[in-house]
Each structure stands twice: as C-alpha cells, then as structure tokens.
Amino acid sequence: MTSVDLESRIAANAARLSADLEAFAAISEPGDGVTRLAYTALERRAHDVFAERMRTLGCVVHTDAAGNTIADLPATEDNGPQSVVGTGSHLDSVAQGGRFDGIAGVVAGMEAAYLAALSPVPRRRRWRFVAFAAEEGARFGQACNGSRMVAGLTTLPDTRRLRDTEGVSMYDAMSEVGLRPDDLAADEWDAAQWHAFVELHVEQGAVLEDAGVPIGIVDSISGSTRLHVAVNGTASHTGATPMHKRRDALVTAASCVLAGDRIAKDSAHHGTRVTVGRLEVSPGAMTTIPGRVEFVVDVRDIDSDRQRTTVEQLAAAYRDAADADGTAIIVDVIADTSPVVLPAVVKDHLAAAAEQHGLGYRLLSSGASHDAQQVNKITPTGMIFVPSAGGLSHVPNEHTDADDLACGVDVLLAALYRLDADE
Amino acid sequence: MTSVDLESRIAANAARLSADLEAFAAISEPGDGVTRLAYTALERRAHDVFAERMRTLGCVVHTDAAGNTIADLPATEDNGPQSVVGTGSHLDSVAQGGRFDGIAGVVAGMEAAYLAALSPVPRRRRWRFVAFAAEEGARFGQACNGSRMVAGLTTLPDTRRLRDTEGVSMYDAMSEVGLRPDDLAADEWDAAQWHAFVELHVEQGAVLEDAGVPIGIVDSISGSTRLHVAVNGTASHTGATPMHKRRDALVTAASCVLAGDRIAKDSAHHGTRVTVGRLEVSPGAMTTIPGRVEFVVDVRDIDSDRQRTTVEQLAAAYRDAADADGTAIIVDVIADTSPVVLPAVVKDHLAAAAEQHGLGYRLLSSGASHDAQQVNKITPTGMIFVPSAGGLSHVPNEHTDADDLACGVDVLLAALYRLDADE
C-alpha cells in the first residue's frame, strides 16, 4: 500500500468536528449567536482550549507576543527538510456572529492533527497548527491583526493607534489579557523557516452552495479599505426648526449611504462591495435634529486600482452631499489592505488533494479578508473553502454542514501530506 | 395709584431667575448639558425643589397621580370667582438638552408667585402654579404626558402601553418613583374649576431673535405624529456578499430619511417638518451588512389635514423604498397629537400685558408641542414665547438671556392679573 493510498483511508469525523465547534460556541458573551471579540478574556479562553487539545496530541505549544497560539507537531523522520508546513485560522468572532467563521479552520486543524498523529504515514517536516488572534476587524477596525503581526504588517506603533469604540487601544487590550505587544517584532515569522501554509475557512458566500460543489479553492482575496466618516450638522428642536434652516447630519449620512450603494452597483464597479455596517446618530433623541453622525464604510475589491478609485469617488460623493446640506464632513482611512492573488503552487496541491478524495472543487475569489492573505507575505499560502448555508456569515444562523466540513478536512490533510512531500 | 399702575412697577429680577435656572440645571445626569428624563428620580428631585419654594411663598402644594406638582396661591379677596387662573410648564429634559426648555416657564411661575405674594395688588381668584411631569417625548415617544393626563388624553391603559427604549413601561417608571398611575382618572382637571391658563416657554426657534422682538404670543401649536419604523433585511458578511444579492436594511432606511426630507421640502408642504432623530443599526458591525434598522420619525404640521396626508405619503415612500431593496418594513404610529389654535380671549390679554410694559411682541406659531396644547382642552390657554439664542433647543448650548426671560415674566404676571380681573 502506497502512502497516498494510506492517506485516502484516513477520514475526518463529522461528529468530532461538531463537538469541537459546540465547545467553542459555548465560550461567548450572553445573547444571540457567538460574541467573542478580539483581545478579550473570552478569546483567550478559546485559545486555552485549543492549546490544551494540541498538547494532548503531542504538539509543542506556545503563545506568541500577538496572542497567536502555535502548536508544532514534530516530524516523524529525523533528516527531513527544516522548513515547516502550517495550517490555521482564528478563534475570535464579531458581535452576535456565528460559530463557523474562523473556528471551522481551527477545528479542522485540530482534526487534521488528531488524524496525522494517529496515522502511520510519515511526516518529513514539522507541522504547525495556528490559532490566530484578533482576526475580526469588528473591535478595532482593522482585520487579521494576529496574522498581520507575525507578517510584520502591524507593529507596535499600530497597536497604540488602533482603538475600539470605547477608546481602548489595542496595546492596552492586549496587555490586559496578558499579551506582550512590546515584543511583537521578536515574534515575526522568518520566511526561511517556512515551506507553505493552508487555511481552511467557511465560504461566507453562496457560490459553492449554488454550484453544488463541496470544495472551493481560493484564487484571490479581496482588498479592503475602511473609512471612518464624521458628519457634523446642527442639533436643534425637530418641531421648532424650519426645514430650510436645518443642517441635519443624518440627512447627509443617508445621502452618503446611498452614494456608496450606487457607486458599488454601477457598471464600472462590477465586483466592488461598499457597505456601511455601523452608523451612530447623536444625540439620538426623537425630538432633536441629529447634530452628528459617525459611520464606518467597508470597501472591498479584488482589483487594487479600482479599490483606490472607489475610495476617492466615495470621498468626493460624501463632500458633495455635505456641501448640499451645509454640513461638515471628515473622512479618515482607518485600515487598508490590498487584494492578494494566491500562488499557483499551493492551489495545484489543493486541487490534487480534492481529486485524491474524489471531491469536486471550483476556483473562486474571496470577498472577505483572511489570515491567509497576511501569511502569504511570508510563505506560499492556499485556502480551502467549505460551503456556507445560504451564503450567510457574521450572523447567529451562519451554518456549514459537519459533513461538508469533514470533506474540507480530508482535503486539508491530504494537501498537508502533499506539501510535506515537496522537496 | 390704580392697580394697573402698581403692577407696572413690579418687575421680575434677572439675577433671581438665573440663580433658579442654575439650581435646576445642577439636577442632571453627568455629561454634556442637562439630562433629566421623564419619570426618573432626578425629575422628582427637581419637582421637590419647586414644591419647597412654593410652600415658602405661601402656596398650598400637592403632587397629583401623574406627578404634576401643583401649587395654589390663595386669593387675597374672600368673595371672588371660584375659578382659578394658572401658569406652568415642565421640569424634565431630553438627553443632553438645555436648561431652558420647560424650566424657563416653571422658574417664571416661581418669580411671578414671589412678586404676587409681595405685591399689595389684590387677587380675586386662586392662582395655580404647575410643574408638569414628563413633557418631553424623548423617553416614552409621547410628549406632554403629565398635561395629557390631567386633560384626560392619556389614561391608565396608555401608561401600560408606552415604553422606553429599555422596555420599561410608563406605568412601571411612574410607580418606581412613587407616583400613582392607577389614580390618574381621579386627578383629571374639571373645566368648571378653571378660568384660564398661560404657559411661558422659550421659543426654540429664531423668529423673535431674527425680528428683534422680545415677546412672542403663540397663535397656534403644531400637531405631531410620531412613527416607529422597523426595516428588516438580511445580515451577512460585507466582503463575501455581492451587491446584487443584498437586502441591506440601512440602504432602505437611508432612502426613507431622504424621502422624508424631500417630502417636507416640496412646495406642497410649506410648513411641514419631518425629522428622523433616532436611528439604530443592527448588528452594527463594520463587516456585517445591516440586517435591521429601527428609526423614529417626527412629523409636525400646523395644518391638521396636511399632517395626516404627510404621514400617508411617508408610509407609501417607505414601502416603495423597501420594495426596491427587497427588504421588509413595518410602520407604527406611536403618538399623534393634532394642531391647536389658541383662543383669542387669552391672546388679547397677552398682547395688552405686553403693551402695558412697553414691550414689542409678535404673533407666531409653535412648531414644538407644549403642555399648553393639552391644557387648552380644559380651559382657554395662551402662550408667551421668549427668544432662544440662535433658535437652538434640545441641545446643551440652548440659551435665553435672563433679561429677556425677565421681560417674559413681566408680561406673564401682568396677564395673570388681567385674567384675574375678568368677570
């Protein structure tokens, strides 16, 4: 029996995956869905669960300065290449999010490590399983923080600049949960030590479901630019202030929301996604004209140039809206990540791994940002998508069938063996 | 010296008025401006200050079931008419409001009572000074609660239906601060006991300031219809969800905000005022398409028919916006008050009182709702406006010059004497 034949008999277990997802879902703020925000005690508890499991599987586990939990499964051969193959995703969530986004990839790594540790198939390289910290931009505006830190893309000064809506800096939030932002530079990854990385993630869209295909291989990942916009008008009494004397900040903000929707839907922007997901009205009283509105805009694009052009068009449309209403507007870029095309060398292994298991796949691009995008700065990286029911994500009813996830783990494990076998 | 000559020598004192305003402003939640919401312990503390002062001036004071504090200054003559003349306004505020809205009228009553109690000018009738409870709609959506209760317009079942944003019913809020909603019916005012009522209030607009006139006499008061609107879309990931697959509740809500602004500004609606003062986005995360938006619309009009037509036009525009975006929309009327034309008999006395003090005045309509509007259901009621700097109200920098307020008190007191002298 060849090694490839052996591998094909090792199969991920859907019930075990479901139990692991369930255990992580229980670590949440009260309320609908899962709330386990970046750099909170709840996120650390989830990391502890991951660390403990990986130790029992024989991994050497440590937490880096950024809060990423890194579990190394030693090679079974003595004289293999020194470079590591890795997999992983994240354990934090948005507020009232689901139990799959990020967690699916960490749980897939746990299952792959379990199967690999039991398997007689030799491993030439060290395998590294990673739970990245603070992937969601929900708290600090910038996504993929743990992976950006190991890739040297987010550094100590950024942690002092980035703040949550309560005004807490990332530096303070990290320190509060026992992490060491001052030591970030020392924990950046060295490209020379790496061979390749694969992240498994739920699709968060409906391409796979609509196509009836179990496996997605990610071709490219959208860039994302995030804007904070403040509109200042004049608060006053709703009854006593005539329409023509108003400077209503919400009227300007409403024009901005519609301008973004219109720009993203015009024919020149096929593929651009513009969203206002957060908007706050002050003072927020029924009988007071809004004097101030703050909102956050998320611009996604697979085309780097169009991403920048869209941001310029939005800023111009926002200024026009403010001029028309006599309000004042301030637009700040709070985060900016370029699109990434993932390397063919890993994609080819992922395709071969899917074929090995007789699973259909299709190439697709990711509209969401992922840790894989940042890790690709260090080492060739690939991504496996598994189907999301109804394409829903970042909501409590986010769902992926355990059987679909198990298929994804089979492809992940086969891909890790294939990368392990590379010279 | 005639009685009218005597009265003209009694003058309100700006420094005393400022000190009283200052004392009430100190009774507030922390933060910008004054926050002393309806049916809270802070509102009751302000009522206690009023009650205590009125007792020292020789008034008989009680608090009714609705939380209105009622101070009766006895007549100085034994055989005068049994009907009372009254004045008053309210002591609650919006969140982060100013120190004049409502309070100015209560403080004016305190000053008028002080001057009347010292004055040798006889009073044929009992004079009633009222601090109404819960005038602001900021907490429960409906304005003028205390005055509506004594006028029989808001009754026990309403107190169980009206709720604040935390879900607390007005009934529970009232009970919590020691009031007696179960006894409301018994404390309704009897028209037969009343002769007339005058409310002094800050204008909350800029008509008087622009015209350089110290006194406004209110001709009519706008009606107000308040709508609660809920838009339901589908929350999902901002990056992974294509524009054409979205049901973004905030895009629909933005169209609704602009539709209201457009309708109120068109030529058929000269005088209609439409405002969205409160709007909340759920889940409110940067990377999640808004799945639900709730907002509140305040429609004001001096024309009763146009007020109803505007509400119908808004509801139709909202449905169109939701249909275009594939979202669902629910529009509920949470409060509805018709415009009121104030009676000429009181306006004539107010004009004469201003002339008596050599003060210029102009007639104007009120865009804001007032307790006077409700009291007018019981007894002929008038309103005196004093200038608002910059026309600003419901904001921390709401301001009326103490000298302007003193002029208003002079007119108020003269008008009370004139009404007192009526047969």
How are the secondary structure elements laid out?
The structure is a homodimer of 423-residue chains.
Chain A: H1 3-9, H2 14-25, H3 41-56, E1 60-63, E2 69-73, E3 84-90, H4 103-118, E4 127-132, H5 145-150, H6 156-161, H7 170-176, E5 194-202, H8 207-211, E6 215-221, E7 223-232, H9 249-265, E8 273-282, E9 292-301, H10 304-325, E10 328-337, E11 340-341, H11 344-356, E12 361-366, H12 371-375, E13 381-386, H13 402-421
Parallel strand pairs in A: 3-4, 3-5, 5-13, 6-12
Antiparallel strand pairs in A: 1-2, 2-4, 6-11, 6-13, 7-9, 7-10, 8-9
Helix pairs in contact in A: 2-4, 2-13, 4-13, 9-10, 11-13
Distance between the termini of chain A: 22 Å
User: How many alpha or pi helices of chain A?
Assistant: 13
Q: What fraction, in percent, of the residue positions of chain A are helical?
A: 25-40%
Task: Report the top-level CATH class of the largest domain in chain A.
Answer: Alpha Beta
Order of helices and strands of chain A: HHHEEEHEHHHEHEEHEEHEEHEHEH
CATH architecture of the largest domain in chain A: 3-Layer(aba) Sandwich
Strand content of chain A: 15-25%
Number of strands of chain A: 13
CATH 4th-level superfamily of the largest domain in chain A:
Zn peptidases
Low-pLDDT ranges of chain A: none
Q: How does the overall form of chain A come out from the CA principal axes? A: elongated
CATH topology of the largest domain in chain A: Aminopeptidase
Largest interface: A-B, 72 and 72 residues
Number of domains of chain A: 2
Oligomer: homodimer
> What radius of gyration of chain A results from the CA coordinates?
23 Å
Content-based structural category of chain A: alpha/beta
Mean pLDDT level of chain A: 95
Tell me the major beta sheet of chain A: 9 strands, mixed
